[in-house]
Write a structure and sequence with these properties.
It contains two helices and seven strands. By secondary structure, the protein is an alpha+beta fold.
Length: about 130
């Protein structure tokens, strides 16, 4: 994978703890290349996003050289980051069925996952 720079946005009211969590957790899986009060930059490619669902303000989905990553701002729990080897495993990061469905739908819309019922057409990382 070519070295691209992805960004994970932080809310305007992000605490120092949330910034540190985002940087630490993303940094476990990708090289951090920059940081500002409202964004963490790292090596990777953004492959999707969802807006507000359940108590998540937003989620961002990324392809990394080490697999796939979902990062979210949870209004109750702060920043959540989950790494998976395959994109179909990203929804497992969340217990809520609606959130899982939103993640799966976004991955299908971006053609990262095959349309439902068409597993043979799956081309992970192919857009």
């Amino acid at each position: 994978m070519a070295s691209e720079i992805a960004e994970f946005p932080l809310p305007a009211d992000a605490t120092d703890e949330e910034r540190a969590t985002a940087k630490r957790e993303i940094g476990k899986h990708a090289r951090i290349v920059g940081e500002e009060p409202r964004v963490i930059r790292f090596e990777g490619t953004k492959i999707g996003q969802t807006g507000p669902v359940w108590h998540l303000q937003y989620t961002r989905l990324y392809k990394l050289s080490t697999g796939y990553l979902v990062a979210a701002h949870d209004l109750h729990e702060g920043i959540k980051v989950f790494h998976a080897d395959q994109p179909e495993d990203l929804p497992r990061a969340f217990e809520n069925d609606t959130v899982r469905e939103f993640i799966e739908d976004e991955l299908r819309y971006r053609k990262i996952l095959a349309p439902e019922g068409d597993a043979a057409a799956a081309r992970p990382g192919h857009q």
